[in-house]
Amino acid sequence: MGQRAGKDDPKRAKRPVDIVARAHADKLVKDGMPIQMALAVAYGKMGLNEAVQRMAQRDAVNRLMEKQTLSRALATQIVLGQANLNVVLAARRLEDHRTQFRNRSTLDEAQAAASPITLLVHGQRRISGKILLVDNYMVRVELEEGGTEDLHKLQVKAAFAPPDAYKKVRKTLKFDKALEKAPLPPVAKPQDRYTCSDKRLFRYMDEHIEVSATTLEGEVFKGQVQWFSRFEFGLHLKGDVDVTVFRHALHDLTE
Questions:
Q1: pTM for this one?
Q2: Environment class of residue 37 by beta-carbon count within 10 Å: exposed (0-12), middle (13-18) or buried (19+)?
Q3: How buried is 29 (Cβ within 10 angstroms: 0-12 exposed, 13-18 middle, 19+ buried)?
Q4: What is the per-residue pLDDT across 222-246, written as a single tens digit (0 to 9) for each?
Q5: Selection from 177, 172, 175, 186 nearest residue 243 by Cα
Q6: What is the CATH number of domain 106-254?
Q7: Of all residues in the chain, what percent are helix, strand and coil, respectively (each to 5)?
Q8: Where in the chain is the domain with CATH 2.30.30.100?
Q9: Is residue 159 within 8 Å of 244, Cβ to Cβ?
């Protein structure tokens, strides 16, 4: 009496349902479906619509990875609606900007170039000259009219170059009347200063929002943020002139 083939016998004849399922799977594979997914559909473990949707999602993920240079995990989250592409890209641009401009210093640049610069300093003064020395706390200026002056960095509110740019700055410069009458001194402790985060400055810059930057002594600069670093940010004013505002000298920053 012959032995009946068990279900684990590799030589047993394929059942009709296996033949039909395999043929269905082969057709799906020819149409571009991955083999494992095609088999799942053919054996009824996955619906065809679900399989098509997954393939579309996979293609969308691959395109997003290639176009935006994203990881598969992050691209998948975006395609599935678990993350926002615009938010992700904005965060990346913010980090790129921080990396590039984090240590930028207008004072260092002026010293390196040995070019004239104008500084607005506390006491509602304006001085022009060349930067001779910059350290962590002090800046030494060779004055235009002769001699030198040492300034604590907290004394510096804003800067622009060349010196004759003040004619353009003055045309757009406004004043807060209350602060002009009762100017505030430099704020020594960082925790006591006006807070303006990198994220906020980046939004102004990224969305081209015009802002008004008010200093402790009441100068109001109105323009668009062009860059920002740890201690400064650049504004392009309406008069087609660029001004650097020192973050420690801010009293307010508004849209």
A1: 0.78
A2: buried
A3: middle
A4: 999 999 999 999 999 988 999 999 9
A5: 172
A6: 2.30.30.100
A7: 45, 25, 30
A8: 106-254
A9: yes
